[in-house]
Amino acid sequence: MVSPLSQTGRSLVAAGLLGFLLVGCVRLLEPPRPSNISYYLLDSSADVDTVATAPTGVTVGLRRPQLASYLDATRMVAREGPNKIRFAEAHRWGEDLDRALNRVVALNLERQSGIRAAEAVPWPEGFAFDYVVQLRILRFEGVGAPPPGPEADDDTHVPEGHSEMVVRWTILGAEGEQVRAQGVTRHREEGWPVTDYADLAAKLDTSLVVLADTLGDRLRGLAGE
Distance (Å, rounded) from C-alpha 23 to C-alpha 29? Predict the structure, then answer.
């Protein structure tokens, strides 16, 4: 037979467990805390709605780019000197950088005359190409002095630097083995306020246009040989 005191104790334990579960449910229903992280995308100068497949021209397959290991992360990078970089914890790429690079280069190739199609890996089934392009990304970042510290006044001068891209590229034959052309494309855009990462992304977009134009010129030259 259960004593009244034991019954009361069991009731208190049950009430405590119920209260714990209710508090847990309330916590689960709380909205997520706002994040101070900003995300950025690389874009193409070509409007994706107006890029049309040319009836003639070369077809290009883009292999996965090889990134310098310090770039193989979601955080955007700024260089403060030959041997010093900083990772922007609150400013990150909104997609894998290698996929973003290939996507934008492919779109910028397809807007050019003489390029019938450009596809990035994974290639569509049955896609046949005339050339394969391999990119090796050596630099893809901002360069400049450190930004003002958290204790700086609102009117503190923000240093200006520049964006910098260095890409080694190789154009291979249709089988992806024979080297047809090689080169290095370097490009920088001045006037980057070192706290403005949206501006840095836009400047790096411009560098990718230059890279795609360089590749397009070389591909058309090979096709005319």
Answer: 10
